[in-house]
Amino acid sequence: MGKGEETKQAIVDEALELVSKVGLEKLTIGALAGATGMSKSGLFAHFRSKEQLQLQVLAEARERFIEIVIVPALKKPRGEARLRAIFESTLKRWEDELPGGCVFHAVSAELDDQPGPARDYLVETQRALADTLRRAAEIAIEEGQFRKDLDLDQFVFEFGSITAAYHHFGRLLGDPAAEQRAHNMFEGLLARSH
Amino acid sequence: MGKGEETKQAIVDEALELVSKVGLEKLTIGALAGATGMSKSGLFAHFRSKEQLQLQVLAEARERFIEIVIVPALKKPRGEARLRAIFESTLKRWEDELPGGCVFHAVSAELDDQPGPARDYLVETQRALADTLRRAAEIAIEEGQFRKDLDLDQFVFEFGSITAAYHHFGRLLGDPAAEQRAHNMFEGLLARSH
DNA sequence: CTGATAATAGTACGACCGTTCGTGCTGTCA
DNA sequence: TGACAGCACGAACGGTCGTACTATTATCAG
């Protein structure tokens, strides 16, 4: 990796941290330059547009999520154990990876009514995650752990609702019991899927 | 209502619509002036600061939520019927009230890591809503509709998770089945509370 | 070591930000 | 009629935004 790529990676890392704290809109070239100790123009040259920078940040977040949550889960046994691994590491490792918590939840509200490449990329990422969950649940059916008539899409919806609520209650309202609540809810979801 | 109050109300109405679409950060004095056909300075004079404008918008949202969701529900019988009324009108009436959907979900992500009066007010509003839900569920226990050992805080958490997921899946991912999923989930929550 | 090239800095730009100020309407009341 | 308050206006402020150009410095193959 040449010097340029190295610097670019460092910028994106810093940017991701900023985004998780202040959101995509307030990720500013000037602020990012200050945080990295670079000049605005020197930093800007790596991306050529703010939109490109935003996309790179989202791509980095996606990569990290796969690395932190998905890859370790794939080493677990197929089915329920894998689902449980995804859930647990999403809550514990992924939400703590960045200072502002799950970056996808942080940006999804500000992109949901603002068409463009950034929104498209986020939606595609979320859909891919939903597919992964769906497939994992399907496997759990094949393995005989989940009942055969389980509604897979409903399962994915309810799974997603838990992490959304965890982010909302834990981060905005500061409820220290949010993690326990989310855990309870997930166990209930699993029990109903048997 | 004097001319001033009338104009101010019209501005706040317009601002609320803007916020639900673009978020609190992008609610700009200039854009709002354009949308209302006023000059920046004339509009600004009504609030004296942007922070005040934001607070007025949040207050308006809170008032409308009470008017649209809470007040009608209070006319329903105590307990489960009331909870059902709150849920149904939150989904159908409240989410459709503004073009960008539930304004609380729209702004909570951008305020959760940004201390200040706006965040404080939002948190207080959400806590008040949570208390209302908690109380309604408590009544359902007293009425013998819910089981006596129901965990009230867990109930509120799960209730909130449904609307959060509805907003997320329906608005960002554009899932047309989100309403049905949310409905299913709510019925499940009620069934488990009996 | 040198010359090409990549990486960064410097400077400037037009647009828009929140905010202030002075001014001119318009209607009320003495 | 004259004084006055309420309301809205245009102009302008200092700042920051994203972005474009140009100059300087660092890197690295030959």
Overview of the molecule:
The structure is a homodimer of 194-residue chains. By secondary structure, chain A is an all-alpha fold. Chain A has one domain: Tetracycline Repressor, domain 2, CATH 1.10.357.10. The first copy, chain A, has 9 helices and no strands. Chain A has helices at residues 3-22, 29-36, 40-44, 50-74, 80-97, 103-111, 117-142, 152-172, 178-193. The longest helix of chain A has 26 residues, at 117-142. Chain A is elongated, with a radius of gyration of 18 Å. Chains A and B meet through helix 1, helix 6, helix 7, helix 8 and helix 9 of A and helix 1, helix 6, helix 7, helix 8 and helix 9 of B. Chain A binds a DNA duplex (30 and 30 nucleotides) through helix 1 and helix 3.
Kindly state the percentage of residues in helix of chain A.
over 70%
> What's the CATH class of chain A, please?
Mainly Alpha
Largest sheet of chain A: none
**Count of discrete alpha- or pi-helical segments spanning 4 or more residues of chain A:** 9
N-to-C order of helices and strands of chain A: HHHHHHHHH
